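dumping this here so i dont lose it again. seq + smiles for 2-acetamido-2-deoxy-beta-D-glucopyranose
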Amino acid sequence: MGICDSTMELSKTLFVVALLLSGAASMKSQAYFNETGDLPCHFTNSQNISLDELVVFWQNQDKLVLYELYKGEENPQNVHPKYKGRASFDQNNWALQLHNVQIKDTGTYQCFIHHKGPQGLVSIHQMSSDLSVLANFSQPKIIISNRTENSDTINLTCSSIQGYPKPKKMSFVLKTKNSTTEYDVIMNILQDNFTDLYDVSISLSISVSPERNVSIFCVLQPDSTQTQLVSQPYNIDAKPPMPTPDRVLTVALLLLLFMSVCGLFVLMLMKRKRKQPGPSRECGESVLVPSAERHCVATSLSAAFWSLFAQPRLATKTSRWLEGEVSPLDPT
Ligand SMILES: *[C@@H]1O[C@H](CO)[C@@H](O)[C@H](O)[C@H]1NC(C)=O
Ligand SMILES: *[C@@H]1O[C@H](CO)[C@@H](O)[C@H](O)[C@H]1NC(C)=O
Ligand SMILES: *[C@@H]1O[C@H](CO)[C@@H](O)[C@H](O)[C@H]1NC(C)=O
Ligand SMILES: *[C@@H]1O[C@H](CO)[C@@H](O)[C@H](O)[C@H]1NC(C)=O
Ligand SMILES: *[C@@H]1O[C@H](CO)[C@@H](O)[C@H](O)[C@H]1NC(C)=O
Ligand SMILES: *[C@@H]1O[C@H](CO)[C@@H](O)[C@H](O)[C@H]1NC(C)=O
Ligand SMILES: *[C@@H]1O[C@H](CO)[C@@H](O)[C@H](O)[C@H]1NC(C)=O
Ligand SMILES: *[C@@H]1O[C@H](CO)[C@@H](O)[C@H](O)[C@H]1NC(C)=O
């Protein structure tokens, strides 16, 4: 029984050692598109063998050589053209750096270390690693197609480009003061046939309430391991409540009529005064204002006061109209 147990233990240990030696345990490695990725080898060189006695090389899953170090010297002869000039050996970590990583570089790589001794080449270490490549999607961007006048319907498009892998979800989020609504929309996905990167977009046609301020965001959820990307908000400000145009018009016209009648009346009075100078003239023109004139001024002042305080928007509207900025028929 004891013998049996120890044999099993031994075989287990041997199996694990064999596994490690064969490199069946593979390392995971991650790199960003167009940047540098590491292909590890995890060689400890416990025997302190000089590089001059070693042959070190990496190959991909199709057995194409990425890099070879032959007795301490780079040997480009065996390197496949697609890896020429793209790899460098990191002697401190016994790792290979692969530059300008492409999505197509995703895959399994193996590193081999042989000892070139008197008896020829002896394999002393080998390991495989899985390289995955990521590309960060650009910040999503909302584009509004031309909004037709007086329409509460807007067409939204949001896009984000050059990411990898395929994102999980993209949506619009509408936020008002007291509500948040998410619109899940089916993504349009385009894959670049050269870089393999994805461009994604969504479109939505919605009606927004003109009484409330609305902020629209576009949210992209890339791969589950990556963080959400959120666009800049697109804000739609509430339209101020609209006064009915006929009221504006009536008040404005009345005011104008009143003021012109007053003006006319005052003019007439002044003319008459000039023609027949009476005793009141000596009493001090500057002090005494004719009562009709006074009345007119007071009424226009009160009218202006009333329109200002009772209907502040009406007043601005009217004054803007009077200044010729807006037409009284313009509803906005
Ligand atoms: C790759 O990176 C270089 C600079 O390192 C940059 O000029 C180039 O535009 C990038 N290419 C892509 C496709 O992102
Ligand atoms: C390894 O060997 C080199 C010479 O080849 C020697 O200089 C160095 O001290 C050795 N290091 C260890 C840890 O034995
Ligand atoms: C990608 O995004 C992550 C975090 O979201 C960041 O840490 C990383 O530096 C970014 N990489 C590139 C190449 O932009
Ligand atoms: C909006 O309309 C203007 C002119 O009417 C046009 O030049 C512009 O391209 C349009 N924009 C969109 C996003 O349709
Ligand atoms: C919005 O899209 C709908 C169809 O989805 C179209 O009928 C409408 O004319 C578009 N409106 C604008 C302002 O682009
Ligand atoms: C949000 O609040 C406003 C008042 O601030 C209220 O009139 C409206 O009904 C509320 N809407 C919802 C969906 O609760
Ligand atoms: C890749 O896209 C280009 C246009 O961007 C097209 O001309 C070419 O035929 C495409 N190649 C393949 C293999 O689909
Ligand atoms: C909308 O926002 C503006 C400021 O951006 C604020 O002055 C206004 O009161 C808001 N309107 C509503 C209806 O919340």
